[in-house]
Amino acid sequence: MDDATATDPRTQTPRASRRSALLGAMFLMATSAIGPGFITQTTNFTVELGAAFAFAILVSILVDIAIQMNVWRVVGVSGLRANELANRIAPGLGWVLAALILVGGLVFNIGNIAGTGLGTDAMMGLDPKIGGVVSCAIAIAIFLSKRAGLALDRIVVVLGVVMIALTTFVAITSRPPVGEALVNSVAPETIQWLAITTLIGGTVGGYITYAGAHRLIESGTTGPENARAISSGSMIGILVTGVMRAILFLAILGVVAGGATLDPANPAASAFEQAAGEIGLRMFGVILWAAAITSVIGASYTTVSFLTTQKSSQRTRSLLTVGFILLCLVLFLTLGKAPVPLLIFAGGFNGLILPIGFTVVLWAAWRRRDLLQGYAYPRWLLVAGVLAWLLTLFLGYKSLEGLQALWAG
Length: 409
Fold this sequence. Notes:
Blueprint: H1 14-33, H2 36-49, H3 53-78, H4 82-89, H5 93-124, H6 128-144, H7 148-174, H8 178-186, H9 193-204, H10 208-219, H11 227-257, H12 267-307, H13 314-335, H14 340-367, H15 379-408
């Protein structure tokens, strides 16, 4: 999706097109992180921890900012995708990273497609498999569009705004104890590190880490001269994710604090229904569908960006993306849903991808100034990145433990 692809000379100036693509990159990063798993994790931890979950949200947002600001800065200033950077630093490493992204993206996309089906079911009672097929057809149409870049940028922004607006309405309706949540965000009654590591992995793990940054390159906002715009873009993108998680948390917290018992089969849908009745359930369907289809788009786009180079033609990238979506759809229809062991396996791979890919980013920032076009990398940002990197090593270690347990089982 070249910047030229996104530009219609009759309606947009190159500068306007670039701004649109930059906004699209921010929301692509955010909406890729806001998937069915995002909604499930937030609901389950809110039910389990109550207001104390606010602390986990705050910590995860701070870590996410440190990671994404470094990823966007290095990728954006260098003008190279993460896999291209990795191959420049150690030949072949980029393809290893691409293989990990492919495995994780493939399995999680099955879950994303399943989420679109569940969303259409909650919205209008449509059979989940039919909903999944229709949703994939919409995603494919976006990538086959003659102005695919513009279509991609606009749909992720629109759906991102819709998700936030509807969730805000339910949050207001459920009347959450906001004061208690604010206190617990800095002085939690209890701390569960599993919740924090899960949130971090869910918002910057696997392909999600690079979704916005790779789209940023195609927007043309690259090079040292655009460092400030790149930095602000990464901050806004992760804050959109944080706002959505905080609002969803408050919506669920209001229901739980009111003494309601959620249906364990689908606690998120149950919470929305109890907060706003039948309309709440329909809203949940819209939110879940929007979260799922934008994640389908983000996973497909980013995975293919690791399998191609910037020299690859737009037609090649589009056809590969369509093929990837169709493969995931066939697997979804065959399996019926994404089996839990496969999702755990993919989650473990995402835990491995984060430290490997982030090591490449930090090494380029620290030792490969030539790849950054001579840019003097800010020391404070590098230090923040190293601290976050140490945490990614811990996450990777826990992921290995999980994969070993899954293999043994």
